[in-house]
Amino acid sequence: MFVMAIVLAMIIVQFIRPTRVDGLSMYPTLDNNDYLIINRISRYTGVERGSIVVFDSTMPINTTSAEKSSVSKIMDFILQDDSSTKDLVKRVIAVGGDHIVIKDGVVKVNGETLKESYMSSDNVTEGTIDTVVPEGHYFCMGDNRMRSLDSRYQEVGFVPQERLVGTVLIRLLPFSNIGKVN
């Protein structure tokens, strides 16, 4: 029965995967420690502007594999998370071929100012950017721009499609906020 459960879990995580939000970069849309279910198929089909995605960054995780408990190693195996780098949750602002300009707190994609109703009114998009997103890449930012390490910064930069883990389907926890995430 135990082996069958593990095999079933491994099949399921080919299509969906749970993940946990770590930090406040997506606040108020997502909060620290929210549990999400992500659609892993979207990593093959691509995503649209405005989608909330999970991607594997190039930033190292502080915990090494040797420091992980046996339970953590088993969960990593079941969830197919053998990465030694951090997964980040961000919103896709621009896709390959888009021209993005950030200046004086205003974000424009292909000459049109974004209407970002998901951000709080006191939030400001810092930085000055004028670039074209390379094909096969995404420009992603957190909804809490003042507390988000995202594509505006060299540590993250453009996100290659092959580093995409998936798009957020639903918030599973806390139960008071269960449902679709926009």
From TrEMBL:
Peptidase S26 domain residues: 2-171
Reaction catalysis annotation: Cleavage of hydrophobic, N-terminal signal or leader sequences from secreted and periplasmic proteins
Single Gene Ontology MF annotation: serine-type endopeptidase activity
Alphabetical GO biological process terms: signal peptide processing
Annotated EC: 3.4.21.89
Record's subcellular location: Cell membrane; Membrane
Keywords assigned by UniProt, alphabetized: Hydrolase, Protease
Membrane topology: Single-pass type II membrane protein
Pfam families per record: Peptidase_S26
Cellular component per GO, a single term: plasma membrane
Catalytic residues in the record: S25, K90
Main localization, broad class: membrane
Region forming the signal peptide: none
Family statement drawn from the similarity comment of this UniProt entry: Belongs to the peptidase S26 family.
Xref: PANTHER family: CHLOROPLAST PROCESSING PEPTIDASE, SIGNAL PEPTIDASE I
Name this polypeptide is given: Signal peptidase I
Organism from which the protein derives: Peptostreptococcus porci
